[in-house]
Fold this sequence. Notes:
- This protein is mainly β.
- The chain has one helix at residues 159-164, and strands at 6-9, 16-20, 26-32, 38-48, 51-61, 66-71, 75-77, 102-104, 106-113, 116-124, 136-145, 149-158, 167-174, 179-184, 187-191, 210-212, 218-223, 230-235, 241-244, 250-256, 262-268, 281-286.
- The protein has two domains: 6-199, no CATH class; 210-288.
- A hairpin with a 4-residue loop joins β13 (167-174) and β14.
- The model has no long low-confidence stretch (mean pLDDT 87).
Amino acid sequence: MSGNAIQMYDCETKxxxxxxxxxxxxxxxxxxxxxxxxxxxxxxxxxxxxxxGPVGISRYDLEQNRLQTLVSEKxxxxxxxxxEGPKPGACLDVDVKNLTKSFPQIVHQVSxxxxxxxxxxxxxxxAPGDIYLARNYDVSLISVLPEPKTILSFRKRNFEDDEQNGxxxxxxxxxxDGSVLIFLKYxxxxxxxxxNAMADLGPRNAKLKSAYSPNLKYxxxxxxxxxxxxxxxxxxxxxxxxxxxxxxxxxxEATWSADSREFATIGVPMxxxxxxxxxxxxxVYSIQ
Length: 288
């Protein structure tokens, strides 16, 4: 919500402490760093017409009680269509008066990766005819803590083309072994230290909606594709199905514990649906 705040709740004293308020736009996706000494969150603005999205990353240091900007908001000037004379094909169906003046950098994802905080950024590469979102972006995976550095870059990605090609540069998953997985027709592994591609963990997994355990030994998939109604647990080394979880009315997502010994699924149980409302359920499972 516009003008929101991030608050920290003390489970012992049951007291709330407000730690951050937006200067503009709104804040989102707060989480603790692995050492528990900082809170990371995104700075969000309108990025697609009135639709909001993350454009910067900030940190609240719990030891020093201070805010710090980790990734500043950036904008790239738009390339406008010519008002007179021949227009490029991309401009033919565009109302020139409604073109945006600039495009924001987009933070596709930010999360922990071992002892680091890692983010995937998209820097727009404007072209004539682009309205709110640019068609092309330079995509970079960067580390923002403990020190800023670029891990790897994918130059000038067109997300519409990537989707048609079965690729997705807008999300990553980090392993506890210092690697990161990015979906390039399948979940491909890279080294966080060098940015170089690493050997596949097993048979190539081409299921985009997969949630890997931090130790990368298992992954969960919401199946079937399109309208999934259950999760399936696979073993990474040989792609073998380990277990098919009970069916639900809808399933949303799955997440793993840091030690890879438990995972939780979120969905709507069959008995939790009525014409007026539905009940969402979190179920926790253990790996034996």
